[in-house]
Specification:
Number of strands: 19
Shape: elongated
Radius of gyration: 25 Å
Structural class: alpha+beta
Distance between the termini: 59 Å
Order of helices and strands: HHEEEEEEEEEEHEEEEEEEEEH
Number of domains: 2
Helix content: 25-40%
Length: 294
Amino acid sequence: MRRAREGRNDPADFSTPAWATRSIRVHSPQTMACALQPLLADQKENRALNFAMISAVSGGLAALDRLDAITTNLANVSTAGFKGLLHTQVADHANEVQRTSSDVRTPINRSRMMGDFTQGPIDKTGNPLHVALDGEGFFVVDTPQGERLTRRGSFGLDEEGYLVSSDRHRVQGEGGDLELGAAAQRGEAIQIGHDGSIQIGQTQVGKLRIVDGGDPSSMDREAGGLYRASADELLPAEEQSFTVHQGATEGSNVSAVEELVAMIEAMRGFEAYMNAMDRIDTINERSIRDVGRI
């Protein structure tokens, strides 16, 4: 999965898609960077001159961020457990913004990427080791970087009989790594209950650890459908808040049709902002030229 570019507002990262060069004049990254220079309090004479350009450039960069989110969503339409990206914009007053190092220093807007954690469809696979969560909560896997959360339930067995994710991370039960043992490797029937309990024959061998991820906006998205929770301690999810389905996986909650429509809107918006920048440049040039004649 392509890494989501959160907060990519640096003009130096600006690149113009091929479709944007057909009928409009494209501004260079240096031009956009100059337009986005900080508006100092003691340079009030520059505020009126730059404000329109800043507004257009901010809108264009926001359109690029939105395209990033859309292309990531489209690339993962068929990815099990994928949660779509939502692009948001917030207008702030120049003197009230807590900026990070990656933010453009303008008073216009801030782009943010948020996760859409609505429920995805339950797709039957017939594999007894595949599980889907219907409702709240996350599975827990053990990675070299520590415990991570996931909704991707396409599990399997490793050579030692442990339940692992598709990336070979060991799935965590309430008592640690879930070891299903030689019986599971021999193909004996595995039963996974709606509460996550795992039974082989008449013996219960463990229970899937399903936790509450807390505030979704505070979780960091990582590759492979993994999330890093901000909370130091992961609390168990309430059993009535979820249902585990065996022999199925949760599909992506992204609609390809909706994303394609959103892509067209974002492309048209980007063209409009670029055209606005071109007109502002023309107005500034004429103003300088005409004033010089007086």
